[in-house]
Amino acid sequence: MWSLRQDLRFALRQLRKSPGFSLTAVLTLALGIGANAAIFLVLHGSLRLPFPQADRLVVVRNTYPGSEDTPGSLPDFQDWRRQSKSFSALVAVFPTRMTYLSKREPVRVPVAYASEGFLSTFGLSPVLGRDFLPGEHQKGAAPVYLISEEFWKDQFGGNPSVLGSTITLNARPGTVVGVVPRMVPSFYYEPQVWMPLEAAPPYDAHGTNFLSVVGRLNNGVSLASARSELNVIQGQIDKQFPGNSHGIMLRPLAQSMFGDIRSVTLVLLAAVGFILLIACVNLANMLLARATDRLREFAIRNALGASVRRLLQQTLTESLLLACLGAILGLICAVAVTRLPLAVWPKFLLRPDQVKVDTTVILFTVGLAILTGLFFGIIPALHVLRENFFAATREGRTLTETREQNFTRSVLMVSEIALATLLVAGALSMARYFTELLHTDPGINPDHVLSMNVSLSPARYAKEEQQRQFFQQLVEHLRTLPGVASVAASSDAPFAGHAQSSDFEYEGQSDRSSGRQPFADDAFVSPQYFETMQVPVLQGRSFSQRDQQDAPKVVVINRTMAETLWPGQDPIGKRITILGEHQVIGVVADVHAAGVAQPAGFQVYFSALQHTPSDMTVLLRTTTEPLALAAVAKQAVYRLDPEQAVSNVTSADQLAADSIAGQRVSTALSGSLGGLALLLASIGVYGVMAYSVSRREREFGIRMAMGARPRDILSLLLRRTGYLVLIGVALGAALTLPLSRWLSTLLPGSRSSGALSVAAAAFALAAVAMFATYLPARRAASVQPMSALRTE
To answer: pTM of the full predicted structure?
Structure first.
């Protein structure tokens, strides 16, 4: 212990003697360790389940031919829960939205119907009040509600007296009995109000699939055995109801909730790992140079009795001290960096409030610091301790770099260039992909379009005719507003994806016997929808006022569907069976309904005058700033119905931006990491060449005394660096090309060429490396021969 304290004091003195080296080393490590700590903070805080024994929680889904992941029906769930022995609990939730009459204005709130035992299955309990009682899960029981912490604080100011108060949802009053914690699983969106599943609409037919089902496995029960048991139970159900045969799929809840986000985050974690490797290579090169300069010091200490083991301990102590200082600064930077996405992009983090430093994060950072210190410290330490200490103590001996040390430094530099090439190429691929998205035609024109959702209460608008009249009156009234060019309504908001997909049959279909039906995305739109959103009508016509409920049923389809179903034929007049038989009256351009990052599949548009949903998005094309008309448009709704909620009021441009926000964040992060890799690579190359020039100053003086010109010295150094850079770039390209093909699988619709990104990355690395070499090389070319020859 005494020797460790002595080594620490000596290491601190060494760092104070070389403030420039110390500052560069600590900052380099802070960048590498801080980047890793920041990604780990997000992984550890946002992408983990906060429930006890969360690994025992699984999601139960139905599987049908052509649709591998669908919800469950209420009768199936009841049979699973009654007969299964593999689960300690099996619960279901049905998410929807309802209108809440707040003191300010009607608002649309996310609501969830939950089965008995839902909270206890996740090991949770209300933060205020109580859970639902067993009797409250009976049909006909008095309505009771659980509200979320967010809803409690927003609508009631966090007042505990909310318990026992009455709130009204969709004209249905109920009593608040508790407040649930925020960490309850959201399933599609985060509910603000919870109610017993038995209060849900009577969707009690086999095949009416609307429930998200979660189970907690009994101890000792595997996922495979639970799946087998449920498939046996489902097989017995299918014998009683043969028209609804399907299989059962189980997967861990964590995979279901975080699958796509976690894969992207793991890619970022691998990228910051490469950043740390580059930082370690830089430090190893710097310490190798320092150790060569300190060879005489080590030789004298060895002559005075210090063992090789004692010298190794001293050098590793210095490395670990540097790593710990870099880790402290890096963790501070990581916390600061993670505050940026919490403030700007909270929707991309599941639980932003959980992104905080705890014992696990500290242990991760400490462990990373120790591994980093050993990694970059052991190479120079072993090289120096293999030196001839006796020869180093001879008077007047110039301490020159051995061939082995020179080779090691070259290998480290090549490795650094290769890793930097990989990261920069990845960043360029992401940048090109994002540029492609920005220039992809979405199929609609979102400019100067106001979007607002109007969802009618089934209590007041129970009949489809009432819903149709309301939307017709609303559209007609909005058209009269100043600054409004045209108005339409759609069942789907722009770039939000179609609400549902349906299987269908079509005229001329030849493979009906195969049992595999094609699927199409459905949308219900009013007349003038295509004109309002400026979707080109390629053939036939769009909907008009004559396409009423008593008129022949008609549909409009997209180009991809027309060309696939009837290649080389005129699709106008063809018949398609979906929600009954319909005739095709028009073909429109493909629309990227779920955002430009997602391809357009088969799309079928129904006339909202013939099939009117209760939930519609009203779209206003304006001649002024769209949001300037938001208040006026909402008032138009309130004039028709003062209790009608209006939600999601925004511009279509904002919806378009939101649809690629994930890609924007990924591009920004990968660009930052690529820039960091370039910076570290330039520091590494500069450090290697600056040290090489300082060690060879006498050699350059002799060369110039014998007739070498400054440009010859400059060419010599640039040529040597060029060879190393060429090898490093080639190695990086060999690693990048296969990885770029894998990366393209994570980027839907990507048309970027991996080879082009690699070539651009190679050029960038070569330019940066040669510039970093030119600075010390120019200094070497300006050496005065006589001054260099006098230097010993």
So the answer is: 0.73
